[in-house]
DUF1428 family protein
Amino acid sequence: MSYVDGFVLAVPKANLDDYKRLANLAGPIWMEHGALGYVECIGDDVPYGEVTSFPRAVQAKDDEIVVFAWAVYESRESRDAVMAKVMADPRLKADWADMPFDGKRMIFGGFKPFIEL
């Protein structure tokens, strides 16, 4: 069964084009290093919930949009190897202060599927 990394983050609307450029750079690099799939989604129907929601989870502000992304790998072991290569890839080396989003509010984690249809 595969393995999935998931990411949720808030991107200032004014930085959305910069974020898309970064995602268009990163996706092919993930794939080159062995990811089976890479998806970036811009929130379209993501209401601010009373108790929980995607915007609440990343403390999205009124001028920000929620982005949901994921990468798929063959296995946890494959993911660990791919991520090591991605993190060492000089094409993705950047100062977090220069990112088009606040990385401190990004949520990410690895997930082991229990159903794949």
Observations:
- The two ends are 11 Å apart (CA to CA).
- Residues 34 and 72 are 9 Å apart (CA to CA).
- The helical segments are 16-32, 54-57, 76-88.
